[in-house]
Amino acid sequence: MRRILLRTLRRRIWNVARRASRAALQLCICLLPCAVACDAQDTSEYALKAAFLFHFAQLTKFPAEAGSPRAFAFCTVGKDPFGGELERVLSAKTIASRPTTILHLKDAANVRNCSVLFVGADQEKQATAFLAGARDAAVLITGESTRILHAGAMIAFERDGERLRFQVNPANAAKSGISFSSNLLNLASSIVRD
């Protein structure tokens, strides 16, 4: 009887340790882009932002209807600020078993085809049309300025010295049926409450 109890206890401890190590590994993978300084010699700021966007998508829960078999679309507004970095980072990647694709939108007509929308700093004046087009759609809206959070975006990049950080607005995400994992919320430099 005692042997059986010890064996059962060992198995339970082993299972808990295995789950904890898996969670620690996931957290390390999520923290990797945060630990890299923006001025690294072989990495541009937009390569880091592209990696962040990929991880944001992984750590965001989209509503069930957003999980359709279509490709998981990462979209930019206007001229591509990434200069090909988004394509390089997302090449052959999948989100929720869906292949990724990249769209560079000139107008807000196709914004509902996006899963993640990135509004560059030079496109903020056009942002209101895109935000209106994505209203109530399961589109994770991101931008380069914290001002965009108050206009309806969900995640905004910010510079902190030489580091690239981000703020989140869970209330804006909830309006579209989107929620953030606790890992993403813990990594954010701040959580904006409207």
From TrEMBL:
Signal peptide annotation: 1-40
InterPro entries the UniProt entry points to: YfiR/HmsC-like (IPR025293)
Highest taxon above the source species: Bacteria
Pfam families named among the record's database cross-references: DUF4154
Keyword field: Signal
This protein's name: YfiR family protein
Species for this entry: Terriglobus aquaticus
